[in-house]
Q: What sequence folds into this?
């Protein structure tokens, strides 16, 4: 089909033209005397994105899943107990990884559509008088259900219980799009990837590790090799990598970090909140549908998981959108398969781009029998965006209620 594919899954996201151009480089010697300049520029540029001065960014040639494994195998011993809430497909996959790697897992089963429950974390931590729990895991943004959790509240639970467990956070679909504060929230390992808010192709596991976690890694006995923090930190200190890095991805990341710095993180968060409110206006006021997220406090500013009416298969909406309108929407996964479709609204995008996704989703729904008024979602989003400007940093947090 003529024209550009409209990519509105919640990752991979659109790669800006500047980043694509930056990646179009000839291969070079990754052990040359000048290569450390690139390494140091990128690692230093990641620190403000994580909002840290004390923690250490690390890049693995992987997806975010590799960084999950790195967090577990570097900081823990086999058989150690971890505490994690399961409330969507990606928190489920982290639980599954913990179990398959040989860790003991206490799972806080939570309805899909809600976020991580701080009060239940507190109950488990307070009951753990012998401090058998060695790590607390939480997904900041559950991509499968469009739910954002309160990481600061999980840190508060740890502090209230006076519990020494490490705090691991999956910020794959939140970092550089939704506020994340490594130092302020006392996060020990943040896990992310290149293909979402960082506006790159998939292929870089992007993580950040506190000094506490690095110290734990020095005595932890779980097997690791490729994902060894020490090997990375030691090589990076000289500006190099322990094995071959993706040079084009490094140049792309350098450019994407420049773009982020130019717009400003707080402006980026406000833009994402503004765009998300327009999508929610389309869903609620235009189409009269519901989100998978059950309450405004859970609404995600990077992905909206839109429930389809009874009798409609969400997979048919997605298939029709792709085959007829060249629009890629996110699928429902596992427990919510067929019950919803997802519009990803993160990374490099604006109102007009997002209107295309809303229009295409609306046409696809009409084609498969969803009874919505033609043009209603587009009109509702237009009305919202025409009458509201992106909020400032303080207002962006309040915007979730809209």
A:
């Amino acid at each position: 089909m003529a024209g550009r594919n409209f990519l509105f899954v919640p990752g991979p996201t659109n790669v800006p033209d500047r980043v694509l151009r930056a990646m179009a480089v000839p291969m070079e010697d990754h052990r040359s005397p000048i290569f450390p300049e690139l390494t140091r520029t990128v690692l230093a540029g990641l620190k403000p994105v994580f909002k840290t001065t004390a923690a250490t960014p690390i890049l693995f040639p992987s997806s975010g899943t590799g960084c999950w494994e790195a967090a577990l195998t570097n900081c823990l011993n086999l058989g150690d107990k971890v505490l994690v809430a399961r409330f969507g497909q990606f928190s489920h996959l982290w639980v599954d990884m913990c179990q398959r790697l040989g860790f003991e897992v206490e799972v806080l089963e939570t309805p899909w559509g809600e976020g991580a429950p701080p009060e239940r974390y507190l109950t488990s931590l307070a009951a753990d008088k012998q401090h058998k729990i060695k790590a607390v895991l939480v997904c900041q943004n559950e991509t499968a259900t469009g739910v954002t959790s309160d990481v600061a509240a999980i840190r508060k639970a740890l502090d209230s219980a006076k519990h020494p467990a490490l705090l691991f956070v999956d910020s794959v679909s939140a970092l550089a799009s939704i506020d994340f504060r490594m130092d302020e929230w006392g996060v020990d390992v943040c896990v992310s990837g290149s293909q979402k808010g960082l506006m790159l192709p998939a292929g870089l596991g992007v993580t950040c590790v506190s000094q506490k976690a690095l110290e734990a890694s020095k005595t932890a006995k779980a097997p690791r090799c490729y994902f060894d923090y020490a090997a990375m930190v030691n090589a990076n200190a000289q500006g190099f990598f322990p094995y071959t890095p993706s040079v084009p991805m490094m140049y792309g990341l350098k450019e994407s970090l420049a773009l982020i710095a130019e717009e400003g993180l707080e402006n980026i968060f406000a833009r994402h909140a503004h765009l998300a409110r327009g999508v929610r206006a389309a869903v609620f006021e235009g189409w009269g549908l519901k989100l998978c997220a059950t309450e405004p406090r859970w609404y995600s500013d990077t992905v909206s998981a839109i429930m389809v009416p009874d009798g409609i298969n969400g997979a048919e909406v997605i298939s029709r959108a792709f085959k007829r309108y060249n629009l890629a929407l996110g699928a429902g996964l596992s427990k919510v398969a067929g019950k919803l479709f997802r519009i990803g609204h993160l990374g490099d995008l604006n109102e007009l781009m997002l209107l295309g996704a809303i229009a295409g989703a609306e046409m696809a729904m009409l084609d498969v029998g969803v009874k919505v008024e033609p043009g209603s979602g587009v009109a509702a989003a237009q009305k919202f965006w025409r009458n509201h400007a992106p909020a400032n940093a303080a207002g962006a947090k309040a915007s979730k209620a809209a």
Notes: The two ends are 37 Å apart (CA to CA). The domain at 265-401 is CATH 3.90.1150.10 (Aspartate Aminotransferase, domain 1).
